[in-house]
Amino acid sequence: MKAQGKFILLELNEFEGWLNMQVITRKISLVQQHHTYVPAYKHVKKENHFDLCKSMEKEHLGRGFAEIAQNFTTFPDGKIMVCRNINTVPAGIKGANFNGICIENVGNFDIGNDIMTPAHRDTIVSMTRMLLSRLGLNASDKSVVYHHWYDLTLGKRIKREGTGTTKSCPGTNFFGGNTVPSFNANFLPLIRT
Ligand SMILES: [Zn+2]
Fold it and tell me: CB neighbours (10 Å) of residue 180?
């Protein structure tokens, strides 16, 4: 565990211990999955986790956010950065922030771009599972959501794939796809306990 200001960098095997120590003071009912797009894997260098998070924060401040948007950032080497306090509402998905917690996975997981490393995959699966367990939530497409499932303009979940104004986040190749059916077929079985 290393810290710089509010940013706390954890190994995957430190995350559960950290999480168990947290006092959660708000109702959290959904876990958001995102990819950062930029930074992508090519921007990741050995030990630049803090620099990447600080530069994301700078960019988010420029967009008028109070601080870095996400509660957690994950990296290709499997490390996890605690960013925005778990008890502070994130700025992740319009319409899904109030009871949400936001995970930004560093990379561009659209088809043809970054290939997720096994360590990264492990961390995303394990930390999602640990969060669900700590929050008392059952794994489903209601408790874990992809940014792509929400209309960016309306701030509402889309009713049917291919409708509304959406972004591809967390990527058209995130665990095999960014749609609800692909979540249910690919990601859900991994996070079920
Ligand atoms: Zn997103």
Answer: 18
9 CA to middle of ligand 1, Å? 21
C-alpha 129 to ligand 1 mean position (Å): 20
What pLDDT is stored for residue 50 in this prediction? 98
The alpha carbon of 14 and the centre of ligand 1 are apart by a number of angstroms equal to 25
Query: What is the reported pLDDT for 59?
Result: 97
Give distance in angstroms: CA of 102 to centre of ligand 1.
Answer: 9
Contact 193, 139 (CB under 8 A): yes
- Hunting for tokens 């967390």 — which residue is that? 170
Residues of the chain with pLDDT under 50: none
